[in-house]
Amino acid sequence: MSTPTTSPTFAVEALTGSRHAGELYEVTGPRLMTFADTVREIAQASGRDIRYVSVSIGEFAAGLRQQGMPEEHIPFFADLFERVLDGRNEHLTDGVERALGRPPRDFADYAKSTAATGVWGLPSDASQT
Fold this sequence. Notes:
By secondary structure, this protein is mainly α. It has helices spanning 6-16, 35-46, 57-66, 74-85, 95-100, 107-116. The protein contains six helices and no strands.
């Protein structure tokens, strides 16, 4: 997973730097992470009790229907969901280092710096709801 702060930096460099013409970069972070790993990092950094809850492809499709997604779009998103979660795309790349000249930022560092801004804190009136 590439961090949200690496992605914009990468995009600006790739779109404005002439040395990137014709290059193809796959962008990843420095380690493989699952959605559960990502949520765990955010929970630890923010001090909040949050958990990742896995759902089946069928549950995901049912949720899309419940939210009003047109039926003809559901198979596409269900297939995408399956491809993201089944492991076939799990690999690390050197795209960030090749494009930016530095290693990718680890998600844990991103989570810590973002949590320090307070954006993941509970609203002040959350205890009253």
